[in-house]
Amino acid sequence: PGPTSCVQRRSAATVAAAAAAGARCAVLRSRRSGQRCSQTTAADTHIATEGEQVGPDAWPVADLALPPVEFSTPRYRTATERAFAEGLPFRLLAFYILQPVTDPLAEAALHDQWCREHGIVGRVWIDEGGLNAQVSGAPRACEDYARFAAARLLLGSAEASLLCKLDPVPELAFEGLRVRHKELVTLGAAHHGLDLRERGWDLE
């Protein structure tokens, strides 16, 4: 198979299971902001079944009960420098989500479809432990993809928030899109089974 054909569209049964998982957790409370999120039901979440033609408007990103998503942007020395950077036509987006993924292949298929329909390029690795994304696209598309990924993988998490790095760039940072079921971080056989969520603590 070619570089973009290894992720196949999910069957109707897999889609139904993913829809049920995506619609769980009716109410969330953000640990950072303390804001209560609105209820999400299965009717709010549309996922394409096999053979269905879906356009960008069919993904109700703005309507989901989203976990908080924050974007870390460069620090600018002057207002002129900021205005120039923010006027650039594209963005480079990078983030990790370290949460269990029940069906990485099915999840990868959904992310592959979403990114292609929204003009996102780059690479997205998904495995049983979460997601690692480095992608590029239009500013709104990049922000919406981060929110889409958070809604897919962080709903119901005890730490329902996502911090992303978002940089203005003059052109797309990648030539194509690769979405793979692949190990997030290559650590070698000696570290097989290591839980990447077990990290240090902030000192401040």
TrEMBL record:
Q: Which Gene3D superfamilies match?
A: 3.30.70.100
**What Pfam families does this protein's entry cite?**
UPF0176_N
Can you tell which superkingdom this protein's organism belongs to? Eukaryota
Q: Which residues cross the membrane?
A: none
Origin species: Pyrodinium bahamense
Q: What is this protein called?
A: tRNA uridine(34) hydroxylase N-terminal domain-containing protein
In terms of InterPro entries, this protein maps to: TRHO_N
* Domain tRNA uridine(34) hydroxylase N-terminal stretches: 91-183
